[in-house]
Amino acid sequence: MCGIMGYVGPQQAAPILLDGLRRLEYRGYDSAGVAVTNGKIDVRKAEGKIDRLADLLESEPLAGTIGIGHTRWATHGEPSDLNAHPHTDPTGEFVVVHNGIIENFQSLREELAGEGHVFTSETDTEILAHLVAREYRGDLESAVRSAVAKAEGAYALVVMTKREPGKIVAVRRISPLVVGLGEGETFLASDIPAVLHRTRRFLIVEDGEMVIVTEAGARIEEIAGGAVDREVLYIDWDAEQAEKGGFEHYMLKEIHEQPAVVTETLGGRLDEDGTAWLEDVHFDDDFARNFSRLWITACGTAYHAGLVGKEIFRRLLRIPTNVEYAHEMRYADPLVSSNHLTVAISQSGETADTLAAARLTKERGSRLLALTNVVGSTLAREADDILYTRAGPEISVASTKAYLAMLIAQYLLALRIGRVRGVVDEELAARVAHGLSLLPAHVEELLHHDDEVLAAAESIVDADDVYFIGRGLDYAVAMEGSLKLKEISYLHSEAMPAGELKHGTLALVTKDTPVIVVLTQQALYDKTVSAVQEVKARGGRVLAVAYEDDEQIHKFAHRVLRIPRADDLLGPVAAVIPLQLLAYHVARLRGHDIDQPRNLAKSVTVE
Ligand code: F6R
Fold first, then answer.
1. Of 169, 107, 103, nearest in space to 136 by CA
2. Measured from the CA of 372, which atom of ligand 1 is nearest?
3. Is pTM beyond 0.85 here?
4. Which of 137, 220, 376, 507 is a good FRET partner for 238, with 20 to 30 A between their CA atoms?
5. 55-75 residue pLDDT tens
């Protein structure tokens, strides 16, 4: 959802900006552009993929060693060359890129128009270029400060002027911004992977801060004024992790990374007896013993991970647990209070709705635990406790490995709390720990059954609608399987609890309608099979995800994807793998852009 790049140093800026923008592609975009200063400001921008911008730069090169770049995901104004960033003021002396939304843009536009300003685009961003130019009195920092004082909303804004060469000024209000510190060169980016191959030393710009970037480094200040002393963050991610590593798509690569991800997420955190050591979870035993309610809040796939978490916590901890869509919770006046624990789940740690819901629970006195994949993300920084998923950078818009890591992390959290509360006894803790330790091998084994999943994908590729059913934990997994399928294959799909089918949706099941059933929960097996029979009686085609030693399943299903036998509590972890692969293969057979599905963005940093 918009990517930002900036460069100040001795090298030509345009190729560096272009390279960074390519690495930010996963955020989703519909146009791209760069600007450099070299005595004057030159801009090149184009609607569409970055290759179009690269072609433009080939035919009309940009010379200069200071520059800013942007990938735009349209909010105000359609995707077009004119609306693409960067935007300049009418004199062409000031140039800006911006991620986020200026909420009062209409009134600012009218105010400026009243003063005679003429705009060339429909964007809210262009207004910022005009505002900075209007406020300029010989000092870019002050001009940016007074411009943003007039702007409401969530954004990251990056500004350059030919009047002060050698400097880029940026501010952050909610939308993410990081500084990469090189040797005699400095980078700005929306996130760390964009420049991780160039430096491992980063400064994270926080909400409400301004950063002044030169080739010598960066200085952070409060937007309101006042110096900030920010510690340099050293990132030890393997840069290879951010590349495709020989796979056709990032999504497939990330699916295949999952055995290693499970090992990483568990690494050093779990003893054989089920004692969990969670390094950044700081609450003491007293709190763990006494908190009275658990809230889980998240969006999308992270919410589906929360659905699994709810079941785990309910079964292991017997604590009242709510799982809430963050975008609903933030406006729902939830009955959160002190002595509650909120687990906010977010791969990116930057999802605007999740941050808002998390902040709300904190304001109401709840303790806030961030379950996130991104070290130093906003959610992590604002939380009392952090549980990093350690899945590594996830590039594909469709989340896979981060989801799996979210599940593993929640088992760990349940063990940590359950042992202290005395509700998870030694035997149960050791059983869960043993089950978790088997998972890397189980997940690995499942990846070897790709041919069977491909055949299943071929059997549903031409369907109009697909339904997913399951009960309890299987329902939670069905929700994720359905989302994966629809978001990358564009095939209509819905998930529901198996018992819900006959209350309406069964009317849509006719001859050959594919119905995918997840069947790991043995206590509910017969109940789920009843729903499957209802499907079969209407001619529906049943695809089951079931344990390898389930001998009855062939009586009910037309096709079975087998998973290794596991403790039912851990069943969802293995069950999601064939569903991820199924979505991948259906999307590939349908010829879609798998890593960047239409209309979607990796990081949803606006409401
Ligand atoms: C789907 C997907 C999204 C995200 C959602 C929340 O594959 O990735 O549904 O899960 O946008 O994102 P995070 O986890 O970054 O808060």
1. 169
2. 14
3. no
4. 220
5. 999 999 999 999 999 998 776
